[in-house]
Amino acid sequence: MRDLIQLLPDAIANQIAAGEVVQRPASVVKELMENAIDAQATYIQLIIKDAGKGIIQVIDNGTGMSETDARMCFERHATSKIRKAEDLFSIKTMGFRGEAMASIASVAQVELKTKREQDELGTLVRMEASVLKVQENIQQPIGTSITVKNLFYNIPARRNFLKSNPVEIRHILDEFQHVALAHPHIRFSFVQNEQETYLLPAEKLGKRIVDLFGKGYREQLASCEEDTSYVSIKGYVGKPEHAKKTRGEQFFFVNDRYIKNAYLNHAVMSAYERLLPEGSFPFYVLFLSIDPSHIDINVHPTKTEIKFDDERSIYAIVQAAVRKTLSIHNLIPSLDFDTNVNFNIPHNPAGQAASNRSGDFSSASGNTHSNKNVQDAWKKLYEGLQDNIQAFEQQAPAIKAPLFEQHSYSSETILQSRANQRENTEFNTSNFQVIQILQKYLALSWSNGLILIDQKRAYQRILYDQFMDHLQRKNGASQQLLFPKLLHISPADQLILEEIKEDLLYLGFQLALEDGAKYWVKGIPAGLGEEDGQSLLEGILEQVKHEASDLSKHRNEKIAQAMSNRSAIRYQQKKLSNEEMNALVEQLFASSNPNSSPNGEQISRALHLQEIINLLN
Question: Region Disordered: what ranges (predicted)?
Fold first, then answer.
């Protein structure tokens, strides 16, 4: 009988490895830029055409490669970063697996030009689908230039899975931002379709953040720094008043390597406890420096997941460092860093085992406070809060008419809707009474029992239906702004704005482009009152930006959902008049789905009379 197991050819093995290493054009950008970092470059230029599907080019002024190394770098598991197994636990370079160049060359046409300072001539190497096509000596400046053309040209099925150009560009921008943030001492340039999107000089981290994300970030940066014998933390966190309604720019770096870690994110969010409104997310860029022997980065080829040997202590230190920063900026009371920081730490959600370390970390200031002083400080933090809320409500414009467009319902109009079909019940406006509870819920009393309605979610549903109607009919009314406002958004967000600009016009936004880079908001959808156009558009862009799917699919639903979520925030806790409550109930039960909000949350719950009786007996 013939043997069944065979050794795969290198070309096929490389394509299999490429499935993990090279998922999309952004993966190529990440690997090539990290190689440039390891080559000690002080200037790195990224050039993109056709969202990386056509050309990805990375040029650096690093150390370059010899003629032999230029050819060897395309072999599987060929690397200059490690020599033995023990080196895996002392890695200080960005790359080490020796898979990237071989994987890229297996699914694209690659041209490499490189030259070392001591060499008279440089080297040119061309590869196509893992096959060497050309290798020769050329004139070349010191450093390396790698050009990747026609990604996935030999695997049409993989190429068809790529998203639209704006989506792929956003992923590329994300990778560029990760590398640029981690290395502010390096000069970067990003050119797409022959237009320079970023030109970042070598600078300090704070200036790099502002250059990447916009001038609006200058006012919200709070420096965060903490040193312990186990780990050092530095970076910036955002002030609570600048938090966004969607998860925006949040970055963790470990030894200058960008990572994703939900456990550490929870540590930061817990430090902001009671400082942020519900559903708000702060900005942060935090760098953790730790001995490589305490971490394992050889978890996944993308190297964005790592393991700590003592994750609970890392959690405690991050939480304490952020709370200390907020305390210094007079946002929360001063904290006692001499207490055991391992108290009140939630278990690792991933279920990973972690040893207990001493949590006896000292504050840089060395100040301690008694429990009574801390309690008094918290009380002072909330002094005048109720007065501020009342003042805010008095400043809000009085609603003299129902917010939503009124329909001519007679008193006998039957509100038969999808919500009632499940129970085959009918009721009309003459049979129910509505009261408001805690300015957040409506209790609807009628002959068969009681219906409880979440006020904010009900508004979300009604607004969503209205925005969807405007998008489909392309007839949204606009409210002119007396003074146009400049929209401060990053280049990455400008790409999204360009893609959804027509839909925003249908909703009622009026935008004007100036100098090819600045957007002015001249009008917002009618009926939004004093809603800030900048904040509203930021919320839409944030939600659309973090959608994993292609925007061309269900784009209207995403935009309408973002709009309704943002617009309904002001009704989360708002006193309603009797007319407003009645209008809300009528329009809810006449909506497309009275049971669920656009986010899939339950809007109302019906309690039958017998259920109420059972509760009391």
Answer: 348-371
Burial class for 479, CB neighbours closer than 10 Å (0-12, 13-18, 19+): middle
In this predicted model, what pLDDT tens digit does every residue of 514-560 receive, in sequence order? 765 677 888 888 766 656 666 777 777 776 666 544 455 567 787 88
Structure tokens at 348: 């690792």
Query: What b-and-e string marks burial along 234-254, b requiring 16 or more CB atoms within 10 Å of the CB?
Result: bbbbbbbeebbbbebbbbbbb
Which regions of 291-349 does DSSP assign to beta strands (E)? 295-296, 307-308
- At residue 134, what is the residue type? V
pLDDT tens track for 273-285: 888 877 788 999 9
**What value does the mean pLDDT of the chain take?**
77
DSSP 21: H
Amino acid at 16: I
Euclidean distance between CA atoms 452 and 467, whole angstroms: 25
| pTM, entire model | 0.66
Q: Which phi and psi (to 5°) does residue 84 adopt?
A: -140, 170
- Nearest alpha carbon to residue 96 among 34, 138, 146, 169: 34
Residue of 283, 245, 269 lying closest to 570 (CA atoms)? 245
What's the token pair of residue 123? 């080297």
Taking the C-alpha atoms of residue 506 and residue 513, their distance in angstroms, rounded to an integer, is: 17
Q: Please answer whether residues 52 and 46 qualify as being in contact, where contact means their C-beta atoms are separated by less than 8 angstroms.
A: no
Residue 35 CB neighbours (<10 A): 21
Paired residues of 122 in beta bridges: 138
Locate tokens 């730490």: which residue?
Answer: 345
**From CA 76, how far away is CA 253, in angstroms rounded?**
28
**∠481-487-490 over CA atoms, to 5°?**
165
Higher pLDDT, 295 or 228: 228
Burial class of residue 227, CB neighbours in 10 A (0-12, 13-18, 19+) = middle
Inform me whether the pLDDT recorded for 472 exceeds 60. yes
Q: Tell me if 385 sits within 8 A of 344, measured CB to CB.
A: no
Q: In what order do the strands lie in the sheet with 478-487?
A: 478-487, 518-525, 510-514
CA gap 577, 598 in Å, rounded: 25
List the beta bridge partners of residue 233.
226, 288
Asked if 310 and 357 touch (Cβ cutoff 8 Å), the reply is yes
Cβ proximity of 209 and 250 under 8 Å: no
The three-state secondary structure class of 232 is strand
CA dihedral 272, 274, 278, 282 (to 10 degrees): -20
Using DSSP, state whether 195 is helix, strand or coil: strand
pLDDT surpasses 50 at 70: yes
pLDDT tens-digit profile of 27-69?
999 999 999 998 999 999 999 999 999 999 999 999 999 998 8
The pLDDT, as a whole number, for residue 427 is 45
Q: Residue 411: pLDDT band by 50, 70, 90 thresholds?
A: very low
Length in residues, the chain: 617
